[in-house]
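We store sequence, tokenised fold; for instance:
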Amino acid sequence: MLATARVLDVKKPCTRREAVHSTSGDDGTGREGEARWSGSSGRASMEGMDDREQTWRLQNETEAVWATAGSFVLGAAVGVLLLAGEPRPLTGSQSLAMPIAAVGGAVAASAFVVSTVRHHRGETTPMPRWQSAISSLSAIALTVVFAAIAAMGALLALQILAIGLQGLQLGAVGGGVLAGAVAAVGGRFAYGAGIGLRTADLAGILFGFLALGTLFAMSTAADPRWWEHNFSTLGGGAGAWAFNGTLVVAGLIIATVGSYVGRDLHRMLGDDALPRIAPIVVLWALTGAALAAIGLLPLERVPVAHNIVALGALALFVLAAVTTARVFPGSPRALVITTIGLIALVGVSVMLCFAIGLFGVTALEAIVIGLGMLWMLTLVRVLAVLAPSGSRPSTRRSLLSARLPRPGVSP
């Protein structure tokens, strides 16, 4: 159902690739468009479009610099207020870590909201109500995601600094400067994402956040020999919230990736393909929900439910991947090769783990997750090549209705 969401499309001048597509002939070969651009007027027009796009990109970079400066000032000011009093250590009880992470997350979320509203105001106007609602829900989910990324990145960075700077304590000013630095990095990243975020970017964000969260969970694990069991062991003990929270946010990211995949497929195939696209987005949403449920049902407390949900998440991921690949127009070689390689490598890894005992379950989990992320990254990069960059509002008043033109939108 999320398939046609026009989520955070970049409002930018027409690029060279879009210009050629927009002038292609009715037969779809593009020969007429190439002929039109072969003259001097065509070259001049394309140079003008390149200049406008360059100006647009430079303007966005300038805005991002100002956003970075503003985020630093805001983060430092709030940090000084929150950290008033006696100097505090970087990590541990009554430390700087949690307040700084909270400031960084709040500033990053605010930067994303400001950027999204500034650059995408009114873009959902031509959409039907259901499509506009989906777009808004995706934006809300991403706001939570960027807050979590900034906070988790801050916690991991402070954990590393505490090892290298043992005994260091900072007062309100020093802590405020550190909070400002965290806010500046998170604000810059989030503001740029608000300007324009592609499906491929989201897949990279998912991989990066899983790495950040897992590394932080490792560094704070109650059982230092957790790796002798499996990754789920990180979800137990005093620091369980780190790993379990990472899974919950990662599930939210996967569900959002699904909405972006559906959006790109709709741009390629149109409203007629909605019956085939909607199940894809639903499956990715269920996969994300199952991954979040793994974090909400820790192995330490509810082992049976945890294992059932974990197997369900794996099955849903495979089903979502297969269903998505089947809807693709044609069979992109990169995706086919990656799919075959993934199946083969997972099979070999399972055999080496259980039949030969070459490595443990933890290593197998890492291999399977890594291969799954590789497949997803290939999928979204192929989509980036094939899908038009322009938005495609649906002409359906509802997902269950026939294709009916709405006022102001041609069928």
Notes: Residues 1-38, 402-411 have pLDDT under 50 and may be disordered. DSSP finds twelve helices and two strands in the chain. Residues 8-19+61-197 form one domain.
